[in-house]
Amino acid sequence: MPTTDNAFATALRLVLHLDPALREIVALSLQVSLAAVAVGALIGLPLGAALALWRFPGRGAVVVVLNALMGLPPVVAGLAVYLLLSRAGPLGQFGLLFTPGAMVVAQVLLILPIIAALTRQQVEELHAEYREQLQSLGLSRLRRIPTLLWDARFGLMTVILAGFGRASAEVGAVMIVGGNIDGVTRVMTTAIVLETSKGNLPLALGLGLVLLALVTLINGAAYLVGETARRRLG
Amino acid sequence: MPKAGLILAALALMGPSLNAAAQNIGHITLASTTSTENSGLFGAIIPAFTEATGIEVRVVAVGTGQAFEIARRGDADSLLVHDTEGETRFVADGHGTERADVMYNDYVLVGPAGDPAAIADAETAAEAFALIAAAEAPFASRGDDSGTHRAEQRRWEAAGIAPASPWYRELGSGMGATLNTAAAMDAYAMTDRATWVAFDNRQGLALLFEGDETLFNQYGSVRISPERHPHLKHDLAAQWHEWLLSEAGQQAIADFRVDGQQLFFPNAE
């Protein structure tokens, strides 16, 4: 297949030449997705843990909604954030639309349910295992959250990586709220859509390969860090 | 701890660029169409404008229908689209203060090089559309309420035809995506000439019909109403609007070439 061959050649050329436009796009992709993952984890981890520990009326419904939101279509998240941040919307005065900030907000909306829902499941299982020990230590539920999160850290790392994967792969949300503006809000995925629409399929696929390589690198780094920590801690 | 590492890395990375984007000094947001952006026109003319005025132009390239919506909600400082009827209505409804002709090019009909409906021999655009319908040859329509889609619908209407599936396929896609699909299913399609010339994935598609005056494609610049949207950068947007119509702007448009071919013809009054 000529397109595929060209794509590999294009991907190699892009990487070897360190094309400045590509560097900018890659940097922005990482900034936006990592920022979204950071915010998503800061909110999602404690939220998921709290949901695992507390019992309240309607909890089942919250769990179901959270699980369902893992399948939220990115374009819907993008549209919701667009309407929120648009000048005619409730948060319009901040002028966030068509900025990387808006893209982070949209991606947080996509990642948060994944991190919270998977964290709840992991912490709940762990808690079932350690409940009596924690009770005998006299720890309040609030105090148990950091303990349980720390104990579940290796599993939660995969949860965070799942969130990162969702963020770096989606295009529907960042396209709408970012606008794919050259040099301002253009990221890897929106650049791929643009090149596809120009009929420049080798470049589009080449960019896709670069993105895939990048995500693999980050996952590899996370794996190494995790393995090292696991071995050191026995 | 990996999580802390990730967060630190993210915060370190996000600092400069998010701040820079929030500063909002000296740039305008222009809602425009995919044809102008994808053909490379903006990449060619905006640097000249920025050099002359110091104003950066950020282009959000979408279908004309969506561009109107973005402008209506106050999310763009200026509008450059190709639906004269829609633009006039936009101004009449009070969303804009004025519209002006900037440039034109034309629509062309492309299709499988074998031309099963024989539209290459048609005398008029209406005849070409009628031939496609008579042959029930696959036709890929944008179907996305864009300027091109609206123009295409007017051509069917003028030919007295109500196109129907299965041969008439509404894709709901941008121009480039529509051409990709048309190439894959050997369908006819109507496209603006700029997107066609700059398009790389033609496969078996060829330009089959052109030159009818009803395929004229006018682009207009619209100024947004300061009363409706006082927060917009009207002074900067006015400079952009005036520059497009000025001799310098018109010359920059005329000088833009793809493969030696002029794609947009300035016609400001």
From TrEMBL, chain A:
Cellular component GO terms held in the UniProt record: plasma membrane
Chief place where the protein resides: membrane
Domain ABC transmembrane type-1: residue ranges: 26-222
Subcellular location per the Swiss-Prot or TrEMBL entry: Cell membrane
Top-level taxonomic group: Bacteria
Segments passing through the bilayer: 33-54, 61-85, 97-118, 154-181, 201-225
Keywords per UniProt: Membrane, Transmembrane, Transmembrane helix, Transport
Protein family (similarity comment): Belongs to the binding-protein-dependent transport system permease family.
Protein name in UniProt: ABC transporter permease
From TrEMBL, chain B:
Top-level taxonomic group: Bacteria
InterPro entries recorded: ABC-Tungstate_binding (IPR052738), PBP_domain (IPR024370)
Signal peptide: 1-22
Keywords for the protein's UniProt record, in alphabetical order: Signal
PBP domain sequence ranges: 24-247
PANTHER family recorded: EXTRACELLULAR TUNGSTATE BINDING PROTEIN
Name the record gives this protein: Sulfate transporter
